[in-house]
Amino acid sequence: MSLMETSNILWRQRELLSTLLFKLDAESMILTAGRTRWLGSATYEVELVLEQVQANELLRATAFDHVAAELGLPVGSSLGDLVAVLDEPWREVFAEHRRALIGLSAEIDAAVRANRELLTSGQRATQEALRVVSGASGLYGPDGAVAAVNSGARLIDEAV
Question: Residues near 5 by Cβ (< 8 Å), separated by ≥ 6?
Fold first, then answer.
């Protein structure tokens, strides 16, 4: 496989990762807006893009192994390894791919962490709301069961 074909595979990888980041951002907006009706669809779209990323990753790994062999590098060499031995202009082309992929990976990681946090806080809020509606106090009785809330009169301090 030529350097041009390998570069094209890396361009495709960058496009797919950009699309993945977009889908994660859309998922985040749905979570932030509380429009959970669309959460399943958004998650499905993320999964579809992830499948494409995985398929492209197989092509990338095969291309890297072929190029590495031509350059006298071991099978499984990284993009950084290739950059280190390539001549110009390919060195700069592949170095730019590497910088872009590292940046996209960091952004995707941050988006995944933020979405996970939104999901977790939403789950906690839902559990708390269900606990209040069901009359559970969130405290445990002597027998280990969740104690019921005393639904008698309550005094609320408005100064708080």
Answer: 63
Encoded tokens for 27: 């998922």
The tokens for 50 are: 């992830």
Partners of 146 in the β-ladder: 140
What pLDDT sits at residue 17?
98
Task: Please enumerate in sequence order all residues whose Cβ is within 8 A of that of 44, keeping only pairs 6 or more positions apart, or say none.
Answer: none
Q: How much is the mean pLDDT over the chain?
A: 87
Choose among 77, 92, 106: nearest CA to 17.
106
pTM comes to: 0.75
Is residue 59 classed as helix, strand or coil in its secondary structure?
helix
Average pLDDT on 10-26 reads 97
State how far the Cα of 68 lies from the Cα of 136, in Å rounded to an integer.
63
